[in-house]
Amino acid sequence: MNLIKKLIYLITALHLLLAVPAMAQQRFPKPEFESGYEQPDTITPEPRSLALEYFDVAVLLAVLALASWLALKKRSREGILWLSIFTLLYFGFYRNGCICSVGSIQNVVLSFSDVNYAISAAALLFFLLPLIFALFFGRVFCAGACPLGVIQDLVIVHPIQLPFWLRKVLGLIPYIYLALAVLYAATGTDFIICRYDPFVGIYRMDAPYTMVVLGVAFLLMGMFVGRPYCRFFCPYGVLLKWMSKFSRWHLTITPSHCIQCKLCTTSCPFDAIDYPSEEKAIVGSRAGARKFLLYAVLLPLWVGAGVFVGAKSHAYLSRANQDVYLAELMIAHPEVKDDPDNLDVQTFLSKGRTLEQLVEDARIVRKKFYTGSMIAGGFIGLVIGMTLLNQVIFRRRTDYQPNPGDCYSCGRCMDYCPVDKNTAQLKTAVPVMKKE
Amino acid sequence: MAEDKIKNRREFIRSGMRLSLALSLGGIAGMALSNVDGDGYVWQIDPFECTQCGRCATDCVLTPSAVKCVHAYDLCGYCDLCGGYFKSGYNELSTAGENQLCPTAAIERKFIEEPYFEYHIIEDLCIGCAKCVKGCSAFGNGSLHLQIMHHLCVNCNECAIARVCPSQAIKRVKASDAYKVKGNFTKDA
Q: What residue ranges do the domains of chain A occupy?
């Protein structure tokens, strides 16, 4: 006890000793004014208040609840359309596309890997709420609450159907993107989802040239390919898909029963309507069984290949980390030390950190990348294998149904269904006859 | 009957999967809860780490940058010859002098009394290039320094300047204590 007290006294004394000469370092002491001059204050405007952050969470919750009600209960495409316009204005143009659930993956991941990283409660809720809703009602978040989704949904003009194989191949990109985003966030390197968000520049109405080009390109493509970012890039969509596949309730195309009229098949811009299974396919199922066995055997090979590729590419991937990049640069090109224009190197040299410390830090980061890339690679391999395997699994379907994983619950198909909710008869037949 | 059985089995698998997904979500939430902070976070520059590299002006997602020069009046010596402020025509401007000049003429000064001048940053003109900060730190008291202004900053999830800052001077700070204005000349205070 006594020792601690002594220590405290010693530290305080040291502080006082150090503080006095530090004060004296001021080159030009503040003058003593005789004219009664009053010194102004340094202006420091307050950041956005915390209460408003929680208000955003409340808005998200309200939008999600409303979207679920509109899609599942009210069955109103028009309602969802207006809701998505609200989201475009609020989460898009007012909140500048930030805070968003898509990027919150990285905050959650970083809070796991870095104990010192404090995640804000709002960010955690933005991550969780849409997933919980997807688990109960499907991807209603995509329909009406996602600022990235609604801007694409509103520009759809003439959607074309993409061939099946292309959809499946491009559909692998989100898994790769997710794996990379988690890898980079977990190693504390970068938040790539936020960095390459194509629409945030449009919402901010201020962005570097490349970002504007990327955003406009996505919107132009989105006129003909429905929601290209959502379908073929969005990493959060992967999580939503997993949840939505097993959702408790989900939007249905028909309000009562399907009459197989096929009217809805062309309504979906995202190719997310599953057709009834053909009886012919069942007959040829022996070939299917053989294929299934083959793909099942291939599955571990895919995972192994993924781990191998991950292990091989970890050095390349780790170069995005500032420490690794700088350490490699200074070892490979020692002459950069004399380059006055290389800000990174010059600042490093002036900061008094030794090259050994830097290399040690870089080695720790690279080690993390080694494990991380193998896990990421294995995950991607597993996804490829499972995608193949899923192609040969036969599912019996009697009606036209929205694919629970891919459907964004936008409600377009509901408008096309001619069956009336109450009478279970054709809607149009009744009023036409009355007119006559 | 067979149809019903298949349906029941499917429903059983679905609810099982749903439950495990819900549990894993709960697990993620529980793990993240230990790091949750009720306070908000914003980005701020530590003026003692800043090396005035000039990237604050070029790398912010906003144009002009949300980083501005602030003036800690407590520190200022009210000098006539200011390292951060070059009055055109005051001295013969050599090439070096031109490079140190505020590129947007965002610094103005007011005569107080012989020989003291008060310096003031016109925020609308400042682009956060840190040229004046460099001059003030090198030749003066270091009262001019950069800060992220929070009525402008959009508080990106990851600050675009922090990513390229060569001295890692930009850090997340609590929103309730959002500025690191140099108060007096000691680093600790």
A: 55-251, 282-392
| Domain annotation covers residue B186 | no
Q: Tell me whether residue B155 is in a domain.
A: yes
- HEC secondary structure over A280-317: HHHHCHHHHHHHHHHHHHHHHHHHHHHHHHHHHHHHHH
Locus of tokens 């040969």: A392
Q: Does B122 touch chain A (CB under 8 A)?
A: no
Q: What does the pLDDT read at residue B93? A: 53
**Do the beta carbons of residue A291 and residue A388 sit within 8 Å?**
no
**Each residue of B24-77: pLDDT tens digit?**
999 999 999 888 887 889 999 999 999 999 999 999 999 899 999 999 988 888
Chain A hits for B36, CB-CB cut-off 8 Å, are: 111, 118-121, 124
Let me know: does A119 contact B32? Beta carbons within 8 Å.
yes
Q: Tell whether B74 and B129 lie within a shared domain.
A: yes
Chain A residue whose CA is closest to B10: A246
At residue B115, the pLDDT reads 87
- pLDDT value at position B97? 59
User: What pLDDT digit, counting tens, does each position of B107-148 carry?
Assistant: 988 888 888 999 999 999 999 999 999 988 888 888 999 999
Helices B2-33 and A101-113 cross at an angle (nearest 10°) of 60
**Domain contains B189:** no
Question: DSSP of A58-73, one letter per residue?
Answer: HHHHHHHHHHHIIIII
Q: Which of A1-5, A37-41, A386-390, B161-165 has the lowest mean pLDDT?
A: A1-5
Number of structural domains found in chain B: 2
Domain interval for residue B16: 1-36
Which of chain A's residues have a Cβ under 8 Å away from the Cβ of B17?
245-246
- Substitution target from B9, B12, B21, B144 for chain A, most A beta carbons within 10 A: B21
| Domain assignment of residue B23, yes or no | yes
From B89's Cα to the closest Cα of chain A, the distance in A is 24
Is the pLDDT assigned to residue B184 strictly greater than 60?
Answer: no
Which pair of structure tokens corresponds to residue B115? 């020989």
